[in-house]
Amino acid sequence: QVQLVESGGGLVQAGGSLRLSCAASGGTFTSYIMAWFRQAPGKERESVGRILSGGYTYYADSVKGRFTISRDNARNMLYLQMNNLEPEDTAVYYCAARRAGVARYDDWGQGIQVTVSS
């Protein structure tokens, strides 16, 4: 099991940028596929994207070209760089981890609010 703590959220104007960080502890970081999810008010949680231990990334169509996921395996850190933010990106953002070969994300951070004003 790995413990995850997000930071870096806040309020930003449309068109602005934010970088979220997720600090991982208690597990072998390189064993995990890391992901970002988000949940907007009144909506279901949705995937933002994920990154494999070697750095290969996948993104949801809604954020492709605007968001970048990266990881620092030496520091056990996951990042989400969000550019050209839109009001529709307003949500609570979560980092999550799962082991390769396991379908479900079992380890989650507490979530952090990102609010984009128009």
How would you name the oligomeric state of the polypeptide chains in this document? Answer: single chain
Total DSSP helices: 0
The global form is globular
Helix/sheet category: mainly beta
What is the radius of gyration computed over CA atoms, rounded to a whole number of angstroms?
13 Å
| Counted beta strands | 11
Biggest pleated sheet: 7 strands, mixed
Please, what is the average pLDDT? 96
Strand/helix succession? EEEEEEEEEEE
Give your account of this protein's structure.
- It is a single chain.
- With 118 residues, the protein is an all-beta fold.
- It has no helices and eleven strands.
- Strands 2, 4, 5, 6, 9, 10 and 11 form a seven-stranded mixed sheet that branches. A four-stranded antiparallel sheet has the order 1-3-8-7, with no helix packed on it.
- Strand 7 (67-72) and strand 8 (77-82) form a beta hairpin.
In short:
The protein is mostly beta strands and 118 residues long. It has no helices and 11 strands. It has strands at residues 3-7, 10-13, 18-25, 32-39, 46-51, 57-59, 67-72, 77-82, 91-99, 107-108, 112-117.
